[in-house]
């Protein structure tokens, strides 16, 4: 079974294949008791956000033998969260990403990876 960081790196390929933008992995191990890592990305519309979320769940199971604990939000809200325990994936619309600004909220965490 993969740890949170290994799963995050595996899923970076998944979200990139679905044309997500502004891909970011944050290390929260010393910042949060909820999870060790965030994978944050942006989808341009509700269909893309849904496709990214579905692919993340499918690839985690198929390639990493990891099942998601849950999926929150809907594509029409502009924010879908997929919880893998050690890793939480946030898929935002551009507007919701700017509004919630998780990068600023967790600014003291270590940036593991940043892709445009």
Which residue ranges are poorly predicted, with pLDDT under 50 across at least 5 consecutive positions? none
CATH homologous superfamily title: Beta Polymerase, domain 2
How far is the first residue's CA from the last residue's CA?
A: 29 Å
Q: What is the H/E order?
A: HEEHEEEHHE
Q: Indicate how many domains the architecture comprises.
A: 1
The largest beta-sheet arranges its strands as 3-4-5-2-1-6
Largest sheet: 6 strands, mixed
CATH topology: Beta Polymerase, domain 2
Which structural class do the helices and strands define?
alpha+beta
* Number of helices in the DSSP assignment: 4
CATH architecture: 2-Layer Sandwich
Give the oligomer, counting copies of the same chain as homo and different chains as hetero: single chain
Per the principal axes of the C-alpha atoms, what is the gross shape? globular
Structural Rg: 13 Å
| Global mean pLDDT | 97
Overview of the structural elements:
The protein has 116 residues and is α+β, with helices and mostly antiparallel strands. The protein has one domain (4-110): 2-Layer Sandwich (Beta Polymerase, domain 2), CATH 3.30.460.10. The protein is built from four helices and six strands. It has helices at 4-17, 46-64, 94-100, 102-105; strands at residues 21-27, 37-42, 70-72, 79-83, 87-92, 110-115. The protein has a six-stranded mixed β-sheet with strand order 3-4-5-2-1-6. α1 (4-17) packs across α2. The longest helix has 19 residues, at 46-64. The chain is globular. The mean pLDDT is 97.
